[in-house]
Amino acid sequence: MRSTFALVITSLLCSTAPICLAQDSFDPTGHNTEAHLPKIIRTQVEYIVIPTSLATQLMYGPKKAANDSALRLQLQKLLDDKKATMLDSQMVTCRSGEKATTESVRELIYPTEYEPAEVPKEVHIDGKNVTAAKEKLITPPTPTAFETRNIGSTLELEPTLSDNGIIIELRFAPEITYHVEDNVLAEFRDERGIADIKVPTIYTLRINTGMTLESGKYHLAAMLSPKTDKGFTDSSKKVFVFVKSDALTVSR
């Protein structure tokens, strides 16, 4: 009689108290709980420079899967042996479906349009026409429009995590920009100084693409050509651009 009463009380408690549901769904490893926790996505982009001949050897042969972790391991050995160099590395963390940007830049502001130099037709001083002073009153070329370029590294991306928490759809646009030099289009000098018309030479490594990634795995996004010391394309070297996105559980 006493045991029957205890069974009835237990059944009533389990029908009303959430503690019984927790006991029924006991999760000793925490994997079921982790699946319902929020996630953030951390994306890293690496630029590794190697000789073109070596890059050709590494890329030779068929490729059956998008996972390039084995290739990245080969590049790490080359880095350790000083046969490759790390040009740059970018990283940003954000939530799924949101855009993120990270910048390490210096703003270069330069004129793009000019008003030409102007010589006055007549110069009047104290009501008198003075022709000898015209050369000293020349108006130099005057900039009227400007443009701004970011010199350095920029990473823009938008990752989207799949329902299984493993596959990541990534839209990203990494970029590295160099200010090589300034080219003089026209020289202008007077007693007040130098007012040459200049335009900058800019060299850019840029990617704009979309990829399907497996969380935690390296993927080769592109192979670019770096610049020489004078700002020309260096065909003797290649830049391997690797991307890796990790879906990280919050409060795990």
Quick overview:
With 252 residues, the protein is an alpha+beta fold.
Structure report:
The protein is α+β, with helices and mostly antiparallel strands and 252 residues long. It contains 5 helices and 13 strands. Strands 3, 6, 7, 10 and 11 form a 5-stranded antiparallel β-sheet that branches. The longest helix has 15 residues, at 2-16. The chain is elongated.
Secondary-structure map with pairings?
Elements lengths: L1 H15 L1 H7 L6 H5 L3 E13 H8 L9 H12 L4 E11 L4 E16 L8 E2 L2 E2 L12 E20 L5 E20 L2 E2 L2 E2 L2 E10 L2 E6 L3 E7 L12 E13 L3
Antiparallel strand pairs: 1-2, 1-13, 3-6, 4-5, 6-7, 7-10, 7-11, 8-9, 12-13
Helix pairs in contact: 1-2
Which percent band covers the strand fraction? over 45%
Residue-averaged pLDDT? 85
Report low-confidence residues grouped into runs of 5 or more: 4-23
Tell me the radius of gyration.
32 Å
Total number of helical segments? 5
The number of domains is 2
Please state the structural category.
alpha+beta
* N-C termini distance: 47 Å
**Which sequence of SSEs, written as H and E, runs from N to C?**
HHHEHHEEEEEEEEEEEE
Overall form: elongated
- Could you give a short account of the major beta sheet? 5 strands, antiparallel
What's the total count of β strands?
13
Q: Please bin the fraction of helical residues.
A: 10-25%
